[in-house]
Amino acid sequence: MVEIHAVDIADPIRTQAILRRYGFKFKKSLGQNFLTNQRVLTEIVDAADLQPTDLVVEIGPGIGSLTEQLARRVQQVVAVEIDSRLIPILDETMAPYDNVQVINQDILQTDLKTLIAPYPDHGAIKVVANLPYYITTPIMFRLIEGEIQPDRLVLMMQKEVAQRITSGPKSKHYGSLSVSVQTQMATNIAAIVPKTSFVPQPNVDSAVLVLQRYLESPYQISEPELFNKIVTSSFQQRRKSLQNNLCTLFGKDQRPQIIEIIAALELPAQVRAEQLTINQFNQLTDLCAQRLAKH
């Protein structure tokens, strides 16, 4: 018989009781921090804009505090957990929910197409995840650029990383990560999460980042490979001018043409990368493709 609890898994008292019963010890190597703040869970669920027909892929369910909230609202939750020690705990905590499937895999090694294949009648695909700080960016780009492209990602991550992703020109946080993500997804921070919301408590605050796939991208990148090279190189040495960073990429012999390109964009000769919009980087790429002898 399934034991029904009046208290949610995220309640600190119930969380501690579950951890004690299983003698669970946190692994620093996996970046494990379990959420025990009901307000933050509500903010995550609200940010996901869940509909009853949605299929949600959750990464790193832990003991199921967020999984429980998702299962109450959507058609199907597929939870991917790398730590095999958590599987028996999830078997217990998720027993009341017949719309939750727990998979013991590394999300970076998981074929998402195969993962969701058993559920062909779903609506939108959404990803909700409390990401380990040390592996946030690889997971995020795998989700953005993979074969299965979720409509919306709601990702808990280190606050500073979320600020870098959402920042615009002339901000100290703006960089190649901002441009790379924003060319593919609309970004916003739904909530700042204090470090006291977790067990164990991390050293820094977190943020709930929402990435929404564009229905129609505002950026038409005609030379994506060159665009990515130029953006990465332009921010390589932030204190250097755009001109000098482009010379490093294309060769010092190309300086006269690079100066002409920057002037053609009506930018100051000593402009830095952080002052360019994404559209200006796109225009820069097109001019470099047309005018430079090699790239």
Automatic annotation (TrEMBL):
Enzyme class, first EC level, given as a word: transferase
This protein's record includes keyword S-adenosyl-L-methionine: yes
Residues binding S-adenosyl-L-methionine, per UniProt: 33, 35, 60, 81, 106, 130
Assigned EC number: 2.1.1.182
Compartments where found: Cytoplasm
Domain spans labelled Ribosomal RNA adenine methylase transferase N-terminal: 40-215
Superkingdom to which the source organism belongs: Bacteria
Main location: cytoplasm
One protein family per Pfam: RrnaAD
SMART domains: rADc
GO MF annotation list: 16S rRNA (adenine(1518)-N(6)/adenine(1519)-N(6))-dimethyltransferase activity
Record key words, sorted: Cytoplasm, Methyltransferase, RNA-binding, rRNA processing, S-adenosyl-L-methionine, Transferase
Annotated catalysed reactions: adenosine(2085) in 23S rRNA + 2 S-adenosyl-L-methionine = N(6)-dimethyladenosine(2085) in 23S rRNA + 2 S-adenosyl-L-homocysteine + 2 H(+); adenosine(1518)/adenosine(1519) in 16S rRNA + 4 S-adenosyl-L-methionine = N(6)-dimethyladenosine(1518)/N(6)-dimethyladenosine(1519) in 16S rRNA + 4 S-adenosyl-L-homocysteine + 4 H(+)
Alphabetized InterPro entries for the sequence: KsgA/Erm (IPR001737), rRNA_Ade_diMease-like_C (IPR023165), rRNA_Ade_Mease_Trfase_CS (IPR020596), rRNA_Ade_methylase_Trfase_N (IPR020598), rRNA_adenine_dimethylase (IPR011530), SAM-dependent_MTases_sf (IPR029063)
Entries under PROSITE patterns matching the protein: RRNA_A_DIMETH, SAM_RNA_A_N6_MT
Protein's job: Specifically dimethylates two adjacent adenosines (A1518 and A1519) in the loop of a conserved hairpin near the 3'-end of 16S rRNA in the 30S particle. May play a critical role in biogenesis of 30S subunits.
Family, per entry: Belongs to the class I-like SAM-binding methyltransferase superfamily. rRNA adenine N(6)-methyltransferase family. RsmA subfamily.
Name the UniProt record assigns to this protein: Ribosomal RNA small subunit methyltransferase A
Source species of the chain: Lapidilactobacillus mulanensis
